[in-house]
Description:
By secondary structure, the protein is mainly alpha-helical. The protein is built from 15 helices and no strands. Helix content is 79%, strand content 0%. The two termini are 31 Å apart.
Amino acid sequence: MERKFINVILLGFGFMFVFTAFQTMGNIEKTILDSIKQDDPSFTGDGYTSLAIIYATLAICNWMAPSVITITGPRGAMLIGAVTYLFFIVTFLFPRTWLLYLASVMIGAGAAAIWTGQGNYLTLNSDGETISRNSGVFWAMLQCSLFFGNLFVFIKFQGKSHIDLHTRNVVFGVLTGVCALGIVFLMLLRPTRRNIDDVKNEMTMKEEGPMEAFRGAIRLFCTGDMMLLSAAFIYTGVELSFFSGVYSPSIGFTLAMGENAKQLVGLSGVFIGLGEVLGGALFGILGSKTTRWGRDPIVIMGYLIHMTSFFLIFINLPNLAPFGDTTDTSYITPSPYLAMLCSFLLGFGDACYNTQIYSILGGKYADNSTSAFALFKFTQSLAAAACFFYSSRAPLSVQLGVLAVLGTAGTAAFCRVEWAARSVARAAARAALAPLAPGEKPASRDVEDALHYD
Protein backbone atom coordinates (compact mmCIF):
# COMPACT_ATOMS: atom_id res chain seq x y z
CA MET A 1 0.00 0.00 0.00
CA GLU A 2 1.42 3.39 -0.99
CA ARG A 3 2.55 5.74 1.76
CA LYS A 4 0.04 8.48 0.94
CA PHE A 5 -2.91 6.10 1.04
CA ILE A 6 -1.72 4.80 4.43
CA ASN A 7 -1.79 8.41 5.62
CA VAL A 8 -5.40 8.70 4.41
CA ILE A 9 -6.33 5.52 6.31
CA LEU A 10 -4.69 6.79 9.52
CA LEU A 11 -6.47 10.10 9.06
CA GLY A 12 -9.76 8.24 8.65
CA PHE A 13 -9.23 6.24 11.86
CA GLY A 14 -8.32 9.38 13.81
CA PHE A 15 -11.44 11.23 12.71
CA MET A 16 -13.60 8.14 13.08
CA PHE A 17 -12.82 7.84 16.79
CA VAL A 18 -12.83 11.58 17.59
CA PHE A 19 -16.16 12.02 15.86
CA THR A 20 -17.63 8.82 17.25
CA ALA A 21 -17.46 10.77 20.48
CA PHE A 22 -18.56 14.18 19.18
CA GLN A 23 -21.25 13.23 16.65
CA THR A 24 -22.83 10.89 19.17
CA MET A 25 -22.86 13.74 21.69
CA GLY A 26 -24.38 16.09 19.12
CA ASN A 27 -27.09 13.56 18.31
CA ILE A 28 -28.11 13.02 21.94
CA GLU A 29 -27.20 16.42 23.44
CA LYS A 30 -30.72 17.84 23.39
CA THR A 31 -32.16 14.66 24.93
CA ILE A 32 -29.37 14.40 27.54
CA LEU A 33 -29.58 18.03 28.63
CA ASP A 34 -33.36 17.79 29.06
CA SER A 35 -32.79 14.86 31.46
CA ILE A 36 -30.11 16.81 33.36
CA LYS A 37 -32.55 19.71 33.79
CA GLN A 38 -35.09 17.35 35.37
CA ASP A 39 -32.49 16.14 37.90
CA ASP A 40 -30.92 19.56 38.52
CA PRO A 41 -33.27 22.57 38.13
CA SER A 42 -30.29 24.96 38.50
CA PHE A 43 -28.89 23.72 35.19
CA THR A 44 -30.35 25.75 32.33
CA GLY A 45 -28.11 24.73 29.41
CA ASP A 46 -29.87 24.13 26.10
CA GLY A 47 -28.70 21.68 23.44
CA TYR A 48 -29.72 23.80 20.45
CA THR A 49 -28.01 26.87 21.92
CA SER A 50 -24.82 24.92 22.60
CA LEU A 51 -24.70 23.58 19.04
CA ALA A 52 -25.45 27.04 17.65
CA ILE A 53 -22.52 28.49 19.62
CA ILE A 54 -20.24 25.71 18.34
CA TYR A 55 -21.01 26.33 14.70
CA ALA A 56 -21.05 30.14 15.01
CA THR A 57 -17.58 30.06 16.60
CA LEU A 58 -16.43 27.59 13.97
CA ALA A 59 -17.62 29.92 11.21
CA ILE A 60 -15.76 32.91 12.65
CA CYS A 61 -12.54 31.02 13.41
CA ASN A 62 -12.39 29.49 9.94
CA TRP A 63 -11.15 32.87 8.65
CA MET A 64 -8.11 32.49 10.90
CA ALA A 65 -7.54 28.80 10.19
CA PRO A 66 -5.35 29.28 7.05
CA SER A 67 -3.09 31.57 9.09
CA VAL A 68 -2.87 28.95 11.86
CA ILE A 69 -1.93 26.25 9.33
CA THR A 70 1.05 28.35 8.17
CA ILE A 71 2.39 28.16 11.74
CA THR A 72 1.40 24.69 12.99
CA GLY A 73 1.09 22.73 9.75
CA PRO A 74 -1.93 20.49 9.13
CA ARG A 75 -0.95 17.78 11.59
CA GLY A 76 -0.40 20.23 14.45
CA ALA A 77 -3.69 21.99 13.73
CA MET A 78 -5.60 18.69 13.80
CA LEU A 79 -4.06 17.69 17.15
CA ILE A 80 -4.91 21.04 18.72
CA GLY A 81 -8.47 20.78 17.46
CA ALA A 82 -8.89 17.19 18.67
CA VAL A 83 -7.92 18.16 22.23
CA THR A 84 -10.79 20.70 22.33
CA TYR A 85 -13.21 17.90 21.34
CA LEU A 86 -11.93 15.84 24.27
CA PHE A 87 -12.42 18.79 26.64
CA PHE A 88 -15.98 19.33 25.42
CA ILE A 89 -16.99 15.75 26.16
CA VAL A 90 -15.31 15.69 29.58
CA THR A 91 -17.32 18.74 30.68
CA PHE A 92 -20.55 16.70 30.48
CA LEU A 93 -19.31 14.73 33.49
CA PHE A 94 -19.56 18.01 35.43
CA PRO A 95 -22.75 19.68 34.14
CA ARG A 96 -22.59 23.44 34.62
CA THR A 97 -24.36 25.89 32.35
CA TRP A 98 -21.38 28.26 32.06
CA LEU A 99 -19.00 25.34 31.47
CA LEU A 100 -21.20 23.95 28.69
CA TYR A 101 -21.16 27.23 26.78
CA LEU A 102 -17.43 27.82 27.41
CA ALA A 103 -16.65 24.35 26.07
CA SER A 104 -18.92 25.08 23.09
CA VAL A 105 -16.83 28.14 22.21
CA MET A 106 -13.57 26.19 22.60
CA ILE A 107 -14.67 23.26 20.45
CA GLY A 108 -15.90 25.69 17.78
CA ALA A 109 -12.40 27.19 17.56
CA GLY A 110 -10.83 23.73 17.62
CA ALA A 111 -13.15 22.50 14.87
CA ALA A 112 -11.89 25.25 12.56
CA ALA A 113 -8.34 24.02 13.08
CA ILE A 114 -9.05 20.29 12.77
CA TRP A 115 -11.20 20.55 9.63
CA THR A 116 -8.96 22.98 7.76
CA GLY A 117 -5.95 20.84 8.65
CA GLN A 118 -7.83 17.74 7.47
CA GLY A 119 -8.65 19.27 4.10
CA ASN A 120 -5.08 20.38 3.56
CA TYR A 121 -3.60 17.04 4.67
CA LEU A 122 -6.01 15.02 2.51
CA THR A 123 -5.11 17.15 -0.53
CA LEU A 124 -1.37 16.77 0.11
CA ASN A 125 -1.85 12.99 0.11
CA SER A 126 -3.92 12.95 -3.10
CA ASP A 127 -3.63 13.86 -6.74
CA GLY A 128 -6.05 14.30 -9.62
CA GLU A 129 -6.48 10.54 -10.00
CA THR A 130 -6.86 9.66 -6.31
CA ILE A 131 -8.73 12.62 -4.78
CA SER A 132 -12.21 11.12 -5.36
CA ARG A 133 -11.13 7.72 -4.04
CA ASN A 134 -9.44 9.22 -1.00
CA SER A 135 -12.39 11.55 -0.30
CA GLY A 136 -14.81 8.62 -0.45
CA VAL A 137 -12.67 6.38 1.75
CA PHE A 138 -12.13 9.14 4.31
CA TRP A 139 -15.83 10.02 4.35
CA ALA A 140 -16.88 6.39 4.82
CA MET A 141 -14.46 5.94 7.73
CA LEU A 142 -15.49 9.23 9.30
CA GLN A 143 -19.17 8.38 9.17
CA CYS A 144 -18.61 5.01 10.84
CA SER A 145 -18.58 7.27 13.91
CA LEU A 146 -22.34 7.73 13.57
CA PHE A 147 -22.86 3.98 13.42
CA PHE A 148 -20.73 2.81 16.35
CA GLY A 149 -21.47 5.66 18.75
CA ASN A 150 -25.21 5.66 18.26
CA LEU A 151 -25.41 1.86 18.39
CA PHE A 152 -23.85 2.10 21.86
CA VAL A 153 -26.37 4.79 22.84
CA PHE A 154 -29.23 2.68 21.46
CA ILE A 155 -28.21 -0.16 23.77
CA LYS A 156 -27.68 2.06 26.84
CA PHE A 157 -30.95 3.98 26.41
CA GLN A 158 -33.02 0.82 25.95
CA GLY A 159 -36.27 0.97 27.90
CA LYS A 160 -35.54 4.40 29.42
CA SER A 161 -37.91 7.36 29.27
CA HIS A 162 -35.50 9.40 31.46
CA ILE A 163 -31.71 9.23 31.10
CA ASP A 164 -30.49 8.85 34.69
CA LEU A 165 -27.17 10.05 36.14
CA HIS A 166 -25.46 6.64 36.07
CA THR A 167 -26.39 6.01 32.43
CA ARG A 168 -25.23 9.49 31.44
CA ASN A 169 -21.88 9.11 33.16
CA VAL A 170 -21.24 5.69 31.58
CA VAL A 171 -21.96 7.15 28.12
CA PHE A 172 -19.77 10.21 28.73
CA GLY A 173 -16.93 8.11 30.14
CA VAL A 174 -16.89 5.72 27.18
CA LEU A 175 -17.05 8.58 24.66
CA THR A 176 -14.14 10.31 26.43
CA GLY A 177 -11.99 7.20 26.03
CA VAL A 178 -12.96 6.84 22.37
CA CYS A 179 -12.03 10.46 21.66
CA ALA A 180 -8.64 9.96 23.34
CA LEU A 181 -8.02 6.94 21.08
CA GLY A 182 -8.69 9.14 18.06
CA ILE A 183 -6.07 11.62 19.24
CA VAL A 184 -3.55 8.76 19.38
CA PHE A 185 -4.21 7.95 15.72
CA LEU A 186 -3.78 11.61 14.76
CA MET A 187 -0.42 11.58 16.54
CA LEU A 188 0.63 8.69 14.27
CA LEU A 189 0.13 10.73 11.08
CA ARG A 190 3.34 10.99 9.11
CA PRO A 191 4.70 13.90 7.06
CA THR A 192 3.70 13.76 3.43
CA ARG A 193 6.30 12.96 0.82
CA ARG A 194 5.78 15.84 -1.52
CA ASN A 195 6.80 16.37 -5.07
CA ILE A 196 8.63 19.50 -6.21
CA ASP A 197 5.39 21.42 -6.85
CA ASP A 198 4.12 20.65 -3.33
CA VAL A 199 7.38 21.86 -1.79
CA LYS A 200 7.26 25.07 -3.81
CA ASN A 201 3.66 25.70 -2.77
CA GLU A 202 4.51 25.14 0.91
CA MET A 203 7.55 27.42 0.71
CA THR A 204 5.42 30.11 -0.91
CA MET A 205 2.79 29.78 1.80
CA LYS A 206 5.40 30.14 4.55
CA GLU A 207 6.94 33.16 2.83
CA GLU A 208 3.53 34.81 2.56
CA GLY A 209 2.84 34.40 6.26
CA PRO A 210 -0.41 34.34 8.24
CA MET A 211 -1.75 37.73 7.10
CA GLU A 212 -1.25 37.00 3.43
CA ALA A 213 -2.94 33.61 3.92
CA PHE A 214 -5.91 35.47 5.44
CA ARG A 215 -6.06 37.94 2.56
CA GLY A 216 -5.74 35.08 0.08
CA ALA A 217 -8.76 33.37 1.64
CA ILE A 218 -10.81 36.56 1.22
CA ARG A 219 -9.76 36.89 -2.43
CA LEU A 220 -10.70 33.27 -3.10
CA PHE A 221 -14.08 33.73 -1.41
CA CYS A 222 -14.90 36.61 -3.78
CA THR A 223 -14.34 34.55 -6.95
CA GLY A 224 -17.39 33.60 -9.00
CA ASP A 225 -17.04 29.82 -8.67
CA MET A 226 -16.51 29.96 -4.91
CA MET A 227 -19.56 32.20 -4.49
CA LEU A 228 -21.64 29.67 -6.43
CA LEU A 229 -20.24 26.74 -4.47
CA SER A 230 -21.12 28.60 -1.28
CA ALA A 231 -24.79 27.97 -2.05
CA ALA A 232 -24.07 24.23 -1.89
CA PHE A 233 -21.99 24.73 1.27
CA ILE A 234 -24.89 26.56 2.92
CA TYR A 235 -27.27 23.70 2.16
CA THR A 236 -24.90 21.07 3.58
CA GLY A 237 -24.62 23.15 6.76
CA VAL A 238 -28.38 23.41 7.24
CA GLU A 239 -29.06 19.76 6.49
CA LEU A 240 -26.11 18.78 8.73
CA SER A 241 -27.62 20.62 11.67
CA PHE A 242 -31.04 19.15 10.90
CA PHE A 243 -30.05 15.48 10.82
CA SER A 244 -27.37 15.73 13.53
CA GLY A 245 -29.20 17.82 16.12
CA VAL A 246 -32.90 18.18 15.27
CA TYR A 247 -34.28 15.12 13.49
CA SER A 248 -33.21 12.34 15.87
CA PRO A 249 -34.37 14.18 19.04
CA SER A 250 -37.65 14.94 17.25
CA ILE A 251 -38.21 11.19 16.90
CA GLY A 252 -37.57 10.76 20.62
CA PHE A 253 -39.99 13.57 21.46
CA THR A 254 -42.78 11.96 19.39
CA LEU A 255 -44.45 9.92 22.13
CA ALA A 256 -46.79 8.29 19.62
CA MET A 257 -43.74 6.29 18.48
CA GLY A 258 -44.28 4.09 21.54
CA GLU A 259 -42.60 3.42 24.87
CA ASN A 260 -39.16 3.13 23.28
CA ALA A 261 -39.26 6.56 21.62
CA LYS A 262 -36.12 7.73 23.48
CA GLN A 263 -34.27 4.60 22.40
CA LEU A 264 -35.02 5.46 18.77
CA VAL A 265 -32.81 8.56 19.08
CA GLY A 266 -29.72 6.36 19.08
CA LEU A 267 -31.12 3.99 16.46
CA SER A 268 -31.80 6.95 14.16
CA GLY A 269 -28.14 7.91 14.42
CA VAL A 270 -27.18 4.34 13.50
CA PHE A 271 -29.24 4.47 10.31
CA ILE A 272 -27.90 7.92 9.41
CA GLY A 273 -24.42 6.45 9.84
CA LEU A 274 -25.27 3.44 7.66
CA GLY A 275 -26.36 5.78 4.86
CA GLU A 276 -23.21 7.90 5.23
CA VAL A 277 -20.89 4.90 5.24
CA LEU A 278 -22.58 3.23 2.27
CA GLY A 279 -22.46 6.46 0.27
CA GLY A 280 -18.84 7.17 1.13
CA ALA A 281 -17.72 3.61 0.41
CA LEU A 282 -19.66 3.46 -2.86
CA PHE A 283 -18.25 6.71 -4.20
CA GLY A 284 -14.78 5.83 -2.90
CA ILE A 285 -14.72 2.51 -4.75
CA LEU A 286 -16.11 4.09 -7.90
CA GLY A 287 -14.15 7.31 -7.48
CA SER A 288 -12.12 7.04 -10.68
CA LYS A 289 -15.24 6.35 -12.75
CA THR A 290 -17.46 9.01 -11.14
CA THR A 291 -14.81 11.70 -11.58
CA ARG A 292 -14.43 10.79 -15.23
CA TRP A 293 -18.14 11.22 -15.94
CA GLY A 294 -18.69 14.21 -13.69
CA ARG A 295 -19.74 14.92 -10.13
CA ASP A 296 -23.14 16.40 -10.91
CA PRO A 297 -25.06 13.08 -11.35
CA ILE A 298 -24.15 12.11 -7.78
CA VAL A 299 -25.15 15.49 -6.37
CA ILE A 300 -28.46 15.40 -8.26
CA MET A 301 -29.09 11.90 -6.89
CA GLY A 302 -28.45 13.22 -3.38
CA TYR A 303 -30.90 16.05 -4.01
CA LEU A 304 -33.68 13.68 -5.10
CA ILE A 305 -33.04 11.40 -2.13
CA HIS A 306 -33.21 14.32 0.30
CA MET A 307 -36.40 15.73 -1.20
CA THR A 308 -38.01 12.30 -0.80
CA SER A 309 -36.90 12.05 2.82
CA PHE A 310 -38.20 15.57 3.63
CA PHE A 311 -41.64 14.67 2.32
CA LEU A 312 -41.73 11.43 4.31
CA ILE A 313 -40.61 13.23 7.48
CA PHE A 314 -43.32 15.85 6.93
CA ILE A 315 -46.11 13.25 6.88
CA ASN A 316 -44.59 11.08 9.64
CA LEU A 317 -43.59 13.46 12.46
CA PRO A 318 -45.79 16.07 14.19
CA ASN A 319 -45.11 19.75 13.60
CA LEU A 320 -44.15 20.42 17.23
CA ALA A 321 -41.69 17.48 17.53
CA PRO A 322 -38.50 19.65 17.63
CA PHE A 323 -39.64 21.47 20.80
CA GLY A 324 -40.07 18.60 23.28
CA ASP A 325 -42.31 15.67 24.21
CA THR A 326 -45.59 15.76 22.30
CA THR A 327 -48.54 13.42 21.84
CA ASP A 328 -49.52 15.07 18.54
CA THR A 329 -49.50 13.16 15.28
CA SER A 330 -49.03 14.23 11.67
CA TYR A 331 -50.82 13.05 8.52
CA ILE A 332 -50.19 9.40 9.37
CA THR A 333 -49.66 7.49 12.59
CA PRO A 334 -45.94 8.01 13.41
CA SER A 335 -44.01 4.97 12.21
CA PRO A 336 -40.61 4.02 13.69
CA TYR A 337 -39.83 2.06 10.50
CA LEU A 338 -40.49 5.06 8.27
CA ALA A 339 -38.49 7.26 10.63
CA MET A 340 -35.47 4.93 10.34
CA LEU A 341 -35.81 4.85 6.54
CA CYS A 342 -35.69 8.64 6.50
CA SER A 343 -32.60 8.56 8.72
CA PHE A 344 -30.87 6.31 6.21
CA LEU A 345 -31.91 8.53 3.29
CA LEU A 346 -30.65 11.65 5.08
CA GLY A 347 -27.26 10.02 5.63
CA PHE A 348 -26.89 8.65 2.12
CA GLY A 349 -27.91 11.96 0.54
CA ASP A 350 -25.46 13.84 2.75
CA ALA A 351 -22.67 11.53 1.57
CA CYS A 352 -23.58 12.32 -2.05
CA TYR A 353 -23.07 16.03 -1.43
CA ASN A 354 -20.02 15.96 0.81
CA THR A 355 -17.91 13.44 -1.11
CA GLN A 356 -18.35 15.48 -4.28
CA ILE A 357 -17.62 18.78 -2.51
CA TYR A 358 -14.41 17.29 -1.12
CA SER A 359 -13.57 16.05 -4.60
CA ILE A 360 -14.16 19.36 -6.37
CA LEU A 361 -12.26 21.36 -3.74
CA GLY A 362 -9.31 18.95 -3.69
CA GLY A 363 -9.16 18.92 -7.49
CA LYS A 364 -10.08 22.45 -8.54
CA TYR A 365 -8.20 24.18 -5.69
CA ALA A 366 -5.32 21.75 -5.17
CA ASP A 367 -2.75 24.57 -4.96
CA ASN A 368 -4.85 26.56 -2.49
CA SER A 369 -6.56 23.80 -0.55
CA THR A 370 -6.09 25.34 2.90
CA SER A 371 -8.13 28.44 2.04
CA ALA A 372 -10.67 26.47 -0.01
CA PHE A 373 -11.51 24.04 2.80
CA ALA A 374 -11.51 26.85 5.37
CA LEU A 375 -14.09 28.73 3.29
CA PHE A 376 -16.15 25.55 2.91
CA LYS A 377 -16.28 25.02 6.66
CA PHE A 378 -16.91 28.74 7.28
CA THR A 379 -19.96 28.85 5.03
CA GLN A 380 -21.23 25.45 6.15
CA SER A 381 -20.80 26.27 9.84
CA LEU A 382 -22.43 29.68 9.58
CA ALA A 383 -25.47 28.04 7.99
CA ALA A 384 -25.51 25.29 10.64
CA ALA A 385 -25.35 27.87 13.44
CA ALA A 386 -28.27 29.78 11.93
CA CYS A 387 -30.27 26.57 11.67
CA PHE A 388 -29.69 25.70 15.33
CA PHE A 389 -30.73 29.20 16.38
CA TYR A 390 -34.09 28.96 14.62
CA SER A 391 -34.59 25.24 15.37
CA SER A 392 -35.82 26.02 18.88
CA ARG A 393 -38.50 28.33 17.45
CA ALA A 394 -39.44 27.08 13.96
CA PRO A 395 -41.90 24.17 13.67
CA LEU A 396 -40.90 21.12 11.67
CA SER A 397 -42.81 22.12 8.52
CA VAL A 398 -40.94 25.44 8.32
CA GLN A 399 -37.56 23.75 8.78
CA LEU A 400 -38.33 21.24 6.03
CA GLY A 401 -39.46 24.05 3.71
CA VAL A 402 -36.19 25.93 4.27
CA LEU A 403 -34.25 22.73 3.51
CA ALA A 404 -36.14 22.17 0.27
CA VAL A 405 -35.48 25.71 -1.01
CA LEU A 406 -31.81 25.73 -0.05
CA GLY A 407 -31.30 22.23 -1.45
CA THR A 408 -32.67 23.28 -4.82
CA ALA A 409 -30.48 26.42 -4.96
CA GLY A 410 -27.36 24.62 -3.72
CA THR A 411 -27.69 21.75 -6.18
CA ALA A 412 -28.21 24.11 -9.12
CA ALA A 413 -25.17 26.18 -8.13
CA PHE A 414 -22.93 23.11 -7.76
CA CYS A 415 -23.97 21.78 -11.15
CA ARG A 416 -23.28 25.19 -12.73
CA VAL A 417 -19.68 25.13 -11.48
CA GLU A 418 -19.21 21.49 -12.50
CA TRP A 419 -20.55 22.06 -16.00
CA ALA A 420 -18.28 25.09 -16.45
CA ALA A 421 -15.26 23.05 -15.32
CA ARG A 422 -16.26 20.29 -17.72
CA SER A 423 -16.40 22.73 -20.65
CA VAL A 424 -12.94 24.07 -19.81
CA ALA A 425 -11.53 20.54 -19.52
CA ARG A 426 -12.96 19.49 -22.87
CA ALA A 427 -11.70 22.64 -24.58
CA ALA A 428 -8.21 22.08 -23.19
CA ALA A 429 -8.27 18.45 -24.27
CA ARG A 430 -9.31 19.30 -27.82
CA ALA A 431 -6.62 21.97 -28.01
CA ALA A 432 -4.04 19.42 -26.89
CA LEU A 433 -5.23 16.91 -29.49
CA ALA A 434 -5.35 19.36 -32.38
CA PRO A 435 -1.70 19.04 -33.50
CA LEU A 436 -1.75 15.21 -33.48
CA ALA A 437 -1.45 13.32 -36.74
CA PRO A 438 -4.40 11.11 -37.82
CA GLY A 439 -4.52 7.98 -35.70
CA GLU A 440 -1.98 9.24 -33.21
CA LYS A 441 -2.90 8.73 -29.56
CA PRO A 442 -2.57 11.45 -26.91
CA ALA A 443 0.45 11.18 -24.66
CA SER A 444 -1.56 11.68 -21.49
CA ARG A 445 -4.40 9.57 -20.14
CA ASP A 446 -5.76 12.79 -18.61
CA VAL A 447 -6.49 14.15 -22.07
CA GLU A 448 -8.48 11.05 -22.97
CA ASP A 449 -10.39 11.27 -19.70
CA ALA A 450 -11.19 14.93 -20.33
CA LEU A 451 -12.75 14.05 -23.65
CA HIS A 452 -14.97 11.47 -21.93
CA TYR A 453 -15.76 13.81 -19.01
CA ASP A 454 -19.40 14.11 -19.99
